[in-house]
Amino acid sequence: MNRLIAIGEKISAYLPQVVSKPDIGELFFYKNTPDFTESFRHSHFRDEAILVKGARIFSFERIVQLLELKAHQTVLEINLSAIAHNLKIYQQLIRPHTRIMAMVKAFAYGSGGAEIAGILQYHKADYLAVAYTDEGVELRKAGIRLPVMVMNPDETSFELLTSYRLEPELYSLDLLQAFDQYLRQEGIQQYPIHIEIETGMNRLGIPAGDMDKLANILLSTSSFSLQTVFSHLAASEEAANDEFTAKQFALFQQAADELQQKTGYRFLRHIANSAAAVRHPELQLDMIRLGIGLYGVDSSRSGQLNLQTVATLKSSIAQLKKVASGESVSYNRKGMMDHDALIATIRLGYADGYPRRLGNGAGKVLIKGQEARVIGTVCMDMFMVDVSGIPGVKEGDEVIIFGPELPVESLAAAAGTIPYEIMTGISQRVRRVYFQE
């Protein structure tokens, strides 16, 4: 320890008798918490880990607030209870025999992969899925024991896959044969794999017409244990594309039936995502894949799900400035004022994931429960809003970027994009804070 700060008359009298200064570094003593807070200077604390420990009567939470206030003005709050609630909503919605594969790729849609995976594991999700092998490795290092499907593996990641018992999606015959060769070289048999069938998404997948070739490869080796066969729906959330969704489903079922008949293998089938699980219950099959629905966004737009908002992005006002009519705000003078205004600068910018497309009145935030529109161009590390109509606003006030009262869906719509892009785009420099109610 570099420093020990003792607060309280008894501990201040007792510690010098039992603590050796050379072992501790610096010793500081305060009669009570107010004495400490009055002498507190942020410059005294930087780049260090601090353990705060004491009885509730000492109100040490005030000290924690002081330590965090200047270091982290922008945070993404993640409600783990809401994740558990949303998982339960889908568990109650699906058929009793249907399992749930939870998508935790892309840092769990910006919310933090290991933390979200941990709560999903506790609440009995059946499978997890990530996009790349290194994401799965991080989950294993964090103590996640659930089966993890890797959706976009490559040959360079085979060693990591097997070392961490990650289950690859093999989306081409070439990749299947390459993994077979690797497993044979390593003397590994019956390794769990997943097969994706192409039915119309035209992204990844083995063509539905190649089931005979696929079956021959599977039967020629003892390397694999086929866990699931699945496909991706292209537009399951859109009623206008329901006919195409039905065609995809029929093609998938036909291909899966053929593969099962030719190999005799038993495997799980899944094709439904969050939207399809609600809009097309007949597509639930053996398992559904939950993505954005887990995070509180109902992509089915059904109105029947009582999902809870998981993520709230908060920042604060760095500065207030009076700007006269005729003056401009931000780069390129896009924000021309037609009235005298009070302008607030917010500690967030496009480097943090706040899109530039929300500039010049497109975006809005909540301050003291009232809407404030973005003025001028969004900068790399900050943007400005007009707070003229909000009484009592002051520097340091909390700013809600999105959350329960300002849904991420509305922010995405204003930016001309989808909630996925907004949530996954929140920079790693934005601190994640996790809590349970």
Which features does this protein show?
8-stranded parallel barrel, TIM Barrel, 8-stranded mixed sheet, 437 residues, Lyase, Ornithine Decarboxylase, Chain A, domain 1, 3 domains, alpha/beta, 32% helix, globular
Structure explained in plain terms:
The protein is of the alpha/beta class. The chain has 3 domains: 3-69; 80-295, Alanine racemase (TIM Barrel, Alpha-Beta Barrel), CATH 3.20.20; 311-435, Lyase, Ornithine Decarboxylase, Chain A, domain 1. Helices cover 32% and strands 24% of the residues. It has helices at residues 9-18, 21-24, 33-39, 61-69, 80-93, 105-109, 113-122, 133-141, 158-163, 173-186, 211-219, 242-263, 274-279, 408-414, 419-424; strands at residues 3-7, 26-30, 75-79, 99-103, 127-130, 148-150, 167-170, 191-198, 206-207, 224-230, 268-272, 287-290, 311-323, 328-329, 335-336, 341-346, 364-367, 370-375, 383-386, 398-402, 431-435. Strands 3, 13, 16, 17, 18, 19, 20 and 21 form an 8-stranded mixed β-sheet that branches. Strands 4-5-6-7-8-10-11-12 form an 8-stranded parallel β-barrel. The protein is globular, with a radius of gyration of 27 Å. It starts with a strand and ends with a strand. The model has no long low-confidence stretch (mean pLDDT 91).
Low-pLDDT windows of residues: none
Strand content: 15-25%
What would you call the structural class? Answer: alpha/beta
- The helical percent reads 25-40%
> How many discrete structural domains?
3
What would CATH call the class of the largest domain? Alpha Beta
CATH superfamily of the largest domain: Alanine racemase
